[in-house]
Amino acid sequence: MDIQEFVANSIGRWRSQRSAHHLAFSHFEAVQSEIDIVALSVHDPAVIDLCKSYNIDPQAAVSPFRMSWEGQSDWDDGEVKGSCVLVPIPDPDDAHRGKLLRDQGYAETIAAAGDYYLTADGTFVLTTAYERAAAEEKIWFVNPNVRCRVSLIKTSAGTGVVTASFSSEIRQGVQN
Amino acid sequence: MDIQEFVANSIGRWRSQRSAHHLAFSHFEAVQSEIDIVALSVHDPAVIDLCKSYNIDPQAAVSPFRMSWEGQSDWDDGEVKGSCVLVPIPDPDDAHRGKLLRDQGYAETIAAAGDYYLTADGTFVLTTAYERAAAEEKIWFVNPNVRCRVSLIKTSAGTGVVTASFSSEIRQGVQN
Of these four, A23, A34, B32, B64, which has the most CB atoms within 10 Å of its CB? Predict the structure, then answer.
């Protein structure tokens, strides 16, 4: 599987159940949300601007997309809402690796560039270094209408795991 | 990584946070437990008996172990407790694949033999077919003291996912 196929399989509306484990104090957080993943044109100004902000030639971008989410958490004040543009930049020498640019990260609300690879069994693995943390994410399809996603937030030294979260995502608008 | 190394890395006591997503009705279940994984001798009568019950030569067994768990769920009457013996039988032609025998399964309380493989990036993947369901489990180490485990219970036809659960497991008795 290459990144084009992975993104194509991800396009759509998903109902997500996410559980976050805050490991230091054994807290469980439950989040229910809807996620929309929409393909963007490589000529979209948001895509071109994001590439330029990383000094990357926009012609290297493939399968850019926008991800939006809206939901409720059972923790804190509850509302969970956001949107970001994501732009894969495949490695010219290895179709299974590359960079993923995004205009807003998960662990901090700043732009971030992560490194991805696709495993032989079709798992997308993304590692992103932030100033004070590192994020590692694995996403795979169980079938065309069910995705799993595991996200780990680590201390920036990369050894301690602060939060481990798991999402099960079911495609909406189809019969399961 | 081969199965011997994977089992060796797993021996110990783990504090587990598990979230189960019951997908049909968007229910979250939270379970906290302690898991003990203890190495067994290949000469242990429980190991030999389990091999014999599958007509497998006990000399083919490597790194057998016992797993016990005890904890609390926030659903139903809450107590979660069990124990099973697990016996890896590597494929003689491929050190990264094999069968895993156990004297009690997860989805049904009967003995089960699953098929495992280890991916290039060290994930243990186990597929077990039961009479009325199929289970798929992935386990990987984030670091020597943190394991992640994703378990999927599917309908026996293998297409629909009934339950997706995620465990984060932290080794006890060490400083993280």
Answer: B64
Residue B32: count of CB within 10 angstroms of its CB: 16
Residue type, B136: E
Return the structure tokens found at B163.
Answer: 């339950």
CB contacts, 8 Å: A21 with chain B? 17, 19, 166, 168
φ, ψ of residue B45 to 5 degrees: the values are: -55, -35
**Per residue in B13-65, pLDDT tens?**
999 999 999 988 889 999 999 999 999 999 999 999 999 999 999 999 999 99
**How much is the ipTM here?**
0.87
For B25, the closest chain A residue by CA position comes to A17
Task: Indicate whether A158 belongs to any domain.
Answer: yes
Quote the number of domains for chain A. Answer: 1
Mean per-residue pLDDT, B120-146:
92
Closest to A88 in 3D by CA, of A109, A67, A73: A67
Domain of B140 in residue numbering reads as 3-171
Q: Which helix (H) or strand (E) holds A6?
A: helix A3-10
Q: DSSP code of B119?
A: -
Residue A164 falls within a domain, yes or no? yes
Q: What residue type is assigned to position B110 of the chain?
A: I
Strands A124-129 and A112-118: antiparallel
Q: What is the CATH number of the domain that holds B68?
A: 2.40.128.20
Q: Which residues, 6 or more positions from A50, have their beta carbon under 8 angstroms from its beta carbon? A: A85, A87, A101, A102, A103, A111
pLDDT digits (tens, 9 = 90+) for A67-102: 999 999 998 778 888 899 999 999 999 999 999 999
Contacts of A148 in chain B (CB under 8 A): 150, 152, 164
| φ and ψ of A26, to 5 deg | 50, 40
Q: Which of B75, B164, B168 is nearest to A27 (CA)?
A: B168
Residue B176 within any structural domain of the chain: no
Q: Residue B47: inside a domain, yes or no?
A: yes
Mutate one of A19, A25, A136, A143 to test the B interface: name it (highest B CB count within 10 A): A19
